[in-house]
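protein under study:
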Amino acid sequence: MGDPSLNFSRAAPRHLVHRQSIAEVFVTEVLRSGPDSFVAGVQWPRRHAVFSAPMTRLDSHLVAETIRQLTIVLCHLEYGVPLGARFLMPSLGLTIEPGAETEFSNALPANCTVFLHGEGIERKRSGELRSIRVRTDFQRNGQVVGRGHGDATLATEGVYRRLRGTAIDNMSPAWPRRELDVLPPRLVGHLSTSDVVLSAGTVKNKWPLTVDTSNTVYFDHPLDHIPGILAVEAMRQAIRVASMMPEAELAFFEATFLHVLEFDSLAVVQLTESDDLFHMKIVQFGRTAVHAVAGLHAARVSVSGRLGPAVSVLRTGNPWPQSRAGESPTSLEPAATGHRAQ
């Protein structure tokens, strides 16, 4: 399955994708194929507690997390970004091809070949990478099943501390789940309340963001902010509630992260619909921290209660550098700030 030069035999070292748990590493290897072009191996779990269980469909949240991992590992391996650097991800997007669910079966490992290309590359005067967009094409059996991009801006520890100020000391273990009226899991396609990231709101199509720092998928190491991948899931859950389709999958998704989401203030997910598109934003401190647009692969009921148009339904030798002894992954997951590292 996939490129014959990829063997999918082992996961990439966890520190290269900023994960503590080996089980949460989906990248297996990265090979250079040309100038700023690469091919990577990805193996998705047959079952996963948060993303898709069982793996009989292409889960858009899983694709988003994989794009995050691919962007980070490529920066470390091929663009010389040191392990201590801080990552800011100002943008992330994905597209899932119609019919992609036919490419997956629980009977076989979900191996996927990903073609990567680095573009928009900016470097500092020192030659160190400042920013990059990593484009991704996901293929199974020679067929494209999805595409996407992850944008990264790099900051040194000193620059990051100046950007974050005192908020850098608000680490995730100190912030328990907010005592809010969490939505029933069945409304958002999950089995456990610990995987629900929205609470019931008092205004239509507005939901307070619920953060459970004991959820080890989102918080598998201490963070000083709410991770961007949790924000992505919050917006997907908002679409599922508004469309009244708990298992609806994203056909495409494009998000821009303007500010870091902080632990110490309530954030609210807001959704509107127009022309069969969902427009979302996450508001905190009276400003938009994240905004996104998305569409579905599904015949759906719209926010207004009208039956939407029917479209395809997505059903459900060691080449790796080693971390230094005692070294932890960098704390910044895919969230972004309105500032760029200098």
Q: What stands out?
A: Residues 273 and 279 are 6 Å apart (CA to CA). The chain has three helices and twelve strands.
